[in-house]
Amino acid sequence: QTPEAGRKEKPMLQSRHSLDGSKLTEKVETAQPLWITLALQKQKGFREQQATREERKQAREAKQAEKLSKENWRSLTRLPQRRW
């Protein structure tokens, strides 16, 4: 009987734990002082801004690389046509 009872309790404990954990984090978030909430929001905004800048930078670099490769290809395709 005890092993079966133990088996039955474990999943319930796990599910209870996960539910309690989510409730606990919600309580902590709402119980925070306003300055902490605002600081976290500011930090999140800053990270998003950095990510956006990085994406733009990568797009710019990719565009530049593509442009350079096209120019290099054009110059290479012109070379054999020249007659010395």
Notes on the structure:
Residues 45-73 have a biased composition (Basic and acidic residues). InterPro entries: Actin_dynamics_regulator. The chain has 84 residues and is an all-alpha fold. Helix content is 89%, strand content 0%. The longest helix has 45 residues, at 34-78.
Condensed summary:
It is built from 2 helices and no strands. By secondary structure, it is mainly α.
Walk me through the topology.
Elements: H1 2-31, H2 34-78
Biased composition (Basic and acidic residues): 45-73
InterPro entries: Actin_dynamics_regulator (IPR052853)
Organism: Pongo abelii (Sumatran orangutan)
Q: Can you give the helix content as a percent range?
A: over 70%
Mean pLDDT: 77
How many beta strands in the DSSP annotation? 0
Enumerate the spans where pLDDT stays under 50 for 5 or more consecutive residues.
none
Radius of gyration over all CA atoms, rounded: 30 Å
Instruction: Tell me the count of domains.
Output: 2
Strand content: under 5%
Sheet having the most strands: none
Number of helices: 2
This entry's quaternary arrangement is single chain
Q: Classify the secondary structure makeup into a structural class.
A: mainly alpha
> In one word, what is the shape?
rod-shaped
Report, as a whole number of angstroms, the end-to-end distance.
98 Å
Helix-strand pattern: HH
Please describe the structure with a list of short key phrases separated by commas or semicolons.
Actin_dynamics_regulator; 84 residues; 0% strand; mainly alpha; KIAA1211 isoform 8
